[in-house]
Amino acid sequence: MDYRANFGTAIELMQRSAQLMGMFLPHHEWQEAQNKLEAFRLFAYADQELRFPKDRLESLDGLTRRALALGNYHRIWALEGVAHYYVGAVSADGRFSGILANPGIPECAMVSMHAGMGTSLAGTLLARLGGQPSRASLRDALERHFQVCRENARPGWYENAIEPMGLGVRSLHPHLLAAVSTAIGEIDSDAQRLFWHGVGRSLYFVPTNFITFGGSHKRALRTAISEAPTPEDQQNAVAGLVWAVTLVNIRHPVVLKNLLRACAGIRMPEAVVNGIVSALMVWKHMVPEDSEFLPVYSRPLPASTPDAKLWNDCVAAPTARAFAELFPALNREGRIASVFQYRPLQREQTRVHHE
């Protein structure tokens, strides 16, 4: 997926715009814009940020070590960029199988690197399809894509690799949204749910919502609901969008507080809570040693604090429950990738409790 061609040339302009708007925007909106630019830059330009060799393709182990040397927040986006870069390089000449089964890559890198691999493979497929693929050719291509993802994913992480198809289609080929959704649904209903979760994630980064001003949260939420054809697809799209906002801005919980106010109007509390808690569980898996950011999200606010009930009901209480019961079970069962689709958390916690 050629993010450089589609967005890369706009990075500098966006940075300048964010700096300029910082004089007029509330601080949390300016900070959110900076966070998005930072995460995107680390992903799209990992080769420059990490100074990859220009005359040869370094081993995936070596590239991964470069990213892991960064600080906690920066490494999760750089790892995604590493996998995207590496898979793009090896798939160009057809040499790839079992890429992320490599035992030299630590488990904490799996979320980021399966996302990066899936994004790269989705971009390659979409570029080869052309503008108006037939129904049969689209279905055949998607079945091959799922197989390649399965062959290259580490056991237990396949879902994480196919979810980015939604991000790729919505970001760069939005005219194919309905056709791809229908084709995936004919193949695998789980994959269709993952697809719409990826669509929701993409809505946080599309150009119309990239710089946060003019009610971008409300605009993205409305788009997620209007584009998804069924209530289940809507729940996945909203969860994916909320997931992205939460993770990108994990260092600044004030951004999530602002999003919650926008979410109150769409009346989809379970999808919102799912997106928040799933993102926090993913962070816990990627940065298990973190004691700086996560505690804030499970800490209830005093009743006298503005929006305390909204925060406590949607963030603090469900996060505390998930970390006490659900996250340890998912981690133990090797099912962290299951959080890349919407499932009512109460149902998942009940399952864990009974088991």
Structure description:
This protein is mainly alpha-helical. 70% of the residues lie in helices and 0% in strands. It contains 20 helices and no strands. α6 runs parallel beside α7, α12 crosses α15 and α17 crosses α19.
Q: Quickly give the structural class.
A: mainly alpha
What is the 3D shape? globular
Secondary structure tally, helices? 20
- Mean pLDDT score, rounded? 89
Largest sheet geometry: none
Features:
355 residues; mainly alpha; globular
Map the helices and strands:
Layout: H1 3-6, H2 11-21, H3 27-44, H4 46-49, H5 60-68, H6 72-91, H7 110-129, H8 135-152, H9 158-162, H10 164-172, H11 177-187, H12 189-203, H13 207-210, H14 216-227, H15 231-248, H16 253-263, H17 269-286, H18 294-297, H19 308-333, H20 345-354
Helix pairs in contact: 2-3, 3-6, 5-6, 6-7, 7-8, 7-10, 8-11, 10-12, 11-12, 12-15, 14-15, 15-17, 17-19, 19-20
Give a short summary of the structure.
The protein has 355 residues and is mainly α.
